[in-house]
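Give me the fold.
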Amino acid sequence: MDALISALSSSLPLFSVVCAIVGLMVGSFLNVVIYRLPKMMEASWRNQCAELDGKPPEEGPRFNLVFPGSRCDACGHPIGAIENIPVLSYIFLRGKCRHCGNKIPARVAVIEAITGILSGLAAWHFGFGLHTLGALIFLWSMIALTFIDIDTQLLPDSITLPLLWTGLLFNLGGRFASIHFAVLGAVFGYLSLWSIYWLFKLATKKEGMGYGDFKLLGAIGAWLGAGQLPLVILLSSVVGAAIGIAMIVFAKHEHSKPIPFGPYLAGGGLIALFWGHDIARAYLG
């Protein structure tokens, strides 16, 4: 073990490759989280409603992030270990179930690839140490939240709130920001979108965003500090506006159908994580 740690700490390319491989495996697990966590939340809400109505909770097969094992949605064929190698299995199986030939969504491999690439980039950027560990926790959470929000327009508290507290703990040592600016980042991150939400609601009688967006920006502020929040908001707003206009013009997205803002906040947070200080220095210079 000591020899392995020594090799990883002394060779940045090796460390980056190892983190990329770990990222691929984590990406496979994130696919499970993205698919199952919203369904677990819905089941919990139904049971809570049943309890308020004095009815017995729903009984069904055990369903969580671990059970049951992964299966083909079409034929129920259990996915074995050899069929679950990140990215490679999708390529070898040509994007189809080995048993019934049903198509496997390409997004499964895309999420695995994105997670692996960004994990390797984080290792290369931050080097061997706790900075990379923190960056990995942050970016893995951003990926999960992005795709859950795209699918369901939900940003689960079970991810955003632990992410916020973990960011504050990491910054006790001032790794990404001083603890002073991390606390301010969490507070101002939440309150800034909360204020915009209420101003928009008072002006239009409509809700422009959800409470999950407040918590997500608060978590980003806890990790990156208050000084990075203006950049995160600017980047997410510009990207969100551009993609939103493109969806309306080219994809015929209905004006009345809401577009989730969480993915743009996550994208702005990831850009700020890697290059926020460089962008700020370039702008101030």
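The mean pLDDT is 88.
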